[in-house]
Every structure is written in structure tokens, then in C-alpha cells.
Amino acid sequence: MDLDVFVSAHRAEWDRLDALLRRRRPLTGAETDELVVLYQRTATHLSLIQSAAPDPQLTGRLSQLVARARGAVTGARRASWRDVTRFLTHSFPAAVYRSRHWWVPTALLSTAVAALLGWWIGTHPDVQASIAAPAELRELTRPGGQYETYYSSNPAASFAAQVWTNNAWAAALCLILGVFLGLPVLWILFQNMLNLGVGFGLMSSAGRLDTFLGLVLPHGLLELTAVFVAAGTGLRLGWTVIDPGPRTRRAALAAEGRAALAMAIGLALVLFISGAIEGFVTPSGLPTWARIIIGVVAELAFLAYVYVVGGRAARDGETGDLEEAERSADVPMAA
Known about the structure:
Layout lengths: L2 H20 L6 H24 L3 H19 L6 H18 L1 H23 L2 H7 L2 H8 L4 H4 L6 H22 L5 H23 L3 H34 L6 H33 L6 H28 L20
Helix pairs in contact: 1-2, 1-3, 2-3, 4-12, 4-13, 5-10, 5-11, 9-10, 9-11, 9-12, 10-11, 11-12, 11-13, 12-13
């Protein structure tokens, strides 16, 4: 492409679009139609320049022009409670449902790894000795030891807030770092499963596995599910870098990245619930069976939310991405 010739051929259209956008009075019907046509043409011109003859200054000018025109064509819209309702009943559960082929295998494999690590640690005293001294291990696992007092070491509200912050950050890292081919996600997952396996193995070797499960299951079912969803989504984002499918890599990453951002917001709400359970239910004086039932009910409610509400929304065409009017227009990559 000869950029100078291209600019000379289309400068008048860009200037006319800029003039229409600067009009203070309402546009007539004919002017509105003209604005829409010029917006579409300029978006195509921008795409051609970006792919064939990128020029930073011209690209910047046309990007601003297209953005202003798009705002004028689609109109500005403020967020409302309708957006919140749509997010909770359509976008978020559909996004989780659509990624189930990633996070369900991730959950099963990670749980198997944690169980294997727990068995290995619990049945090998030499491995336990490499973790801590015998006196420290007894202090961790004895009745009233550190594993039990951990959940009541701080006031419930502040402990729940701390737990929620840590878990939300871990989930966000899985979603953000997934773009690096998913490798950091695997490391984060392994660290989480290693911590779980260590606790499982040490308490099992001390004959207190029932106590450990009674402390972990009430909040851990929902908490770990949220982490697995984040990890699975991060891995899918990493795979998109490798295989974007029929879309361009940039378009595929943009779509999956927007869905991942929405996933982060939704999972923060899920982790808030699990954090509240961990802060208020896990250390409570309720019987072990009652605490576990609360955890199981919370987990089943989330799975029903994903598979019933999310499945229905996904079958209706919901993807978890922004609405079409809120996304950047897909423009042709060639004339």
C-alpha cells in the first residue's frame, strides 16, 4: 500500500466525519446516515492501515476518530441495575458453563494430585521430617494445635476479609497470567495443591484426618471450585494464544480476555461467600456434620447455578462477552 496515495484518496472522508462529529446542533436524518457510512468506512481504513502500512501518528488519529464516531452512533449508556442482573443471571454463569471442559478436568486432576501428595507425606516419616521438626509437627497437629486455631486466630470479620483478599488475588493471577501459555497457572495450582496435600498428610499421620476434613470441607469445596474455574479459564486463555481457531489471534484474545475479566468479577463474589463461610462457619461451635453440610449446600448451589442458569443462558447464545453494541466493531482485514 502506498500510504501517501491512500491518505490523499480518503482524507476528505475523514475530515467530513470529524466535521459531523463536531456539530453542536442535532444532525438531520441524511447527516446521520452519512455519519454511519463514514464511520464504517473509516473503521475499515484503520484496519487496512494497521495491517498493511502501520503508521503510529495516522493510526492514533483514526483510532480516536473511530472511537468518537462509534460513541455517536451507538450512544453512551450508563451502567444500571439491569446490567448487574444480566451479569449475575446470564454473563457470568454462562462464561463458567462454557469453560467447564477446562475447569472440570483441572479440578479432577488437581484433586488427585493433592490426594497423592497427602498420601505420600502421610505414609513417609522421612518426608514429614523434611517439612518440620517432630516437635513442630506435634504442635501443628495436636488437639487445639495450629491447624485448628488458625481459623479462629483473628476476629471472624477480619479473618474472612483476609481470606477473601488472598483467594481473590490467587484467582485473578490465574486469569491474568493465563496468557503466558498457561504455565504460571500450573505453578499456582501446584502450590495450592501442595499446601492442601501437606495438611492432609500431616493430619492423617497424626490420626486426625476427620478433624482436618471437618475444618477444610465447609469452605474448601466452594473455595477450591472457584480456584479451579479461574485456573481452567486461564489455561483456556493460554491455549487461545497457541490456537486461536478461525479468528485472528488478536480478536480471539480480546474476546477470551473480556470473558476472563468478567469471570474475575464473578469469582470474587463466589470467593466472598466462601471467605464468609471460612470466617464465620468453620471456626464456629457447630457440630462437624452441620458445618460440612453448609459447605456441601454452598457447593451444590453454585454447581446448580452454573449448570442450570448458566447452561440455559449459554444455549440461548450468551458467551460471557460484552454485548455486541459495547464491543469494538470487527472490521474487514482486507479490501
